[in-house]
Batch of 2 targets.
Target 1
Amino acid sequence: MKIAISGDFVIRSGSVANPMDLVPDASVEAEVLGEFDYRLVNLEGPVLARNTKAKPTAKCGPILRMDDAIWDVLRKMGVDGVTTANNHIGDYGPVGIIDTMNGARKHGIEFFGSGLNFDHAYGLRMIDVGGEKLAILAVNEHDGAILHEREPTPAFLDLGRLAKNITQARFQEIPVLVYYHGGNQHCPLPNPYMRNLFRRLVDLGASAVVATHAHCPQAWEVYRKAPLFYGLGNFCLIGRKDSKHGISFQLKRKLLHILGRGFPPVKELAKKSHEYGLTVVLEFNGGSVTVSKIRFSRFTVDDGLKWIHDDEHLSCVKRIKEINDILIDDKHYGKVWDAWCHILTPQHLSMIQRNLAGGKMIFSKDFRKRISIANRFGCESTRTMILDYLTRKKPPSSDMLDKTVELMGLWNDD
Ligand SMILES: [Fe+2]
């Protein structure tokens, strides 16, 4: 069975007049990707029916919402299934999750990684192509919102439940694809926690692990014959515009950089990487899996979704090779990761410091603020970054910092 998987998909309500114009139809995909049996993308937000009234949930980060015209866009592209385990699916609370699951069913699209409650979200789901089965286990990091076990929810990462599902599928001799939503945004490499986790999932019996969320294409590797794609990048994404806070924060960081204190905002360092995405075709054959194809796409609001060809394709392959080479050299990988933490962590710590100063946080009734701090400790990737930053005895060399800044701009040149 061949399954084609792309990264994050969201076209927020009201962002464009006709979302259908932004994507090519399924025949173009088939031409680029070759033959495949099943098409999977990550649906990075709730799809609410037009007449549904729902309030945004209290969480940190942008709030996303799509309207039900999106189902036709997904059908146009030939999407068979969507992963709904992510940090935005709960942006409009239980109502948004229920609408999304109902809408998917109505339009003949399968969903993975959400449910009416936590047990349901972790139900063992599989696809069947001509009698050949594949379990798709979708989970997301503790990012963005809080888990309410008895309410509609995405499948927040629960290692025990995930291990149980992998074991159960393998006991039935069904191969397992784990879809993971997490990682450090705009970082071209996975963090050490994710890398270790993915390997242990393979040790448990997963045939392949594929991740998204970082909003940039990331490195990939093979471990014990299992492909591990740490970040497919964005596939088709129109999220929310920066909040006032986001803009003021970026301006402040830019000003400090001009004054010689600190690095430019991350969105400036990695300004184009969010336009690119990898689509991988994995071929499952009994217990083994091979990477049948990797193609690149680029999405901009003006030009829509375009597949990359010829010289531009070769340049994308070269970029991925550059980051893959770093990953397979443990020492080099460690140094780049340290430098990444050094560049990015201070903004998280300063946010925590600002809100904890003078006991403000203890008495704060601003739940959103509290969640925002809790998220820094609860989200596996952010926590890893902060802990690694705080526990390093020496700062990275200035040469390594310069090289890491350069690496973040890998996708900036056309
Ligand atoms: Fe995400």
Note: The chain has 14 helices and 18 strands.
Target 2
Amino acid sequence: MSALHRRDLLAGLAGLAALGAGGLDVWANAPTPKTVKKPTPLPRPKLVFLDPGHGGRDPGALGLRGTQEKSVVMAIARDLQKELLAGGRYRVLLTRSTDNFVALRERVARAQAAKADLFLSLHADSHDNPDVRGASVYTLSEEATDREAAALAARENRADAVIAGMKLSDKDDNVARTLVAMSQRGTVNDSRRLADTIVQTFGHNGVRLLPRTHRQAGFAVLTSPDIPAALVELGYLSNRQDEKLLTVRQHQVSLARALRASVDAHFAASAATRKA
Ligand SMILES: [Zn+2]
């Protein structure tokens, strides 16, 4: 069970308890209700963590015309942040909000500390072959997932590690490993669904995609055991057309809109899965 599911489950149970205490009994027994029924609390807005890749001394990929990956992905992250906030359904935080260097593990740690519901890392790629172009979406590979689970479970100092609401510090190595693996398996499935949703939404919105677009790799930034995460390569700065497109405001905004639609579809699908 992912932390996401668990949190929603707990919220649901709290809602039921409130109903039992103040709602049904009153209508069944008392002619004049003495307590005013509290309004149902609105669902907690989902926290989306956006990760504009690179920054500061690390410019990322460089285009033929000198475009820097770190600036392009920051512009698109800002657009996406605006898009997500506009609907009032999300809170949005960025792993970096200026042109500064943030280590990969630190990005994951920030999202975990904030209890993010979703992590989206934004990048632009580069290839030796200048003809290669199109977007692609990555999730954590199985080997990397297992490696991370073992490393986290075996870490000497895991005093602060909490998986699915359970502290790892008081568990022995085997139990810790199983807990991490269980949580990570759920998260990996959620992440893969998220990646497929992004690929579909990009397809519907005319965003050019690489063949075999959803790929798996060992990106350090995708290693959070309990936050569904995907890394999106928005195009190739080593390709003239892609480089141009990635700097055009209109294209940046339409990429942000396609990503916002993907986030909407992801949360709609996970809500539907829980109801089924
Ligand atoms: Zn990158």
Note: The two ends are 16 Å apart (CA to CA).
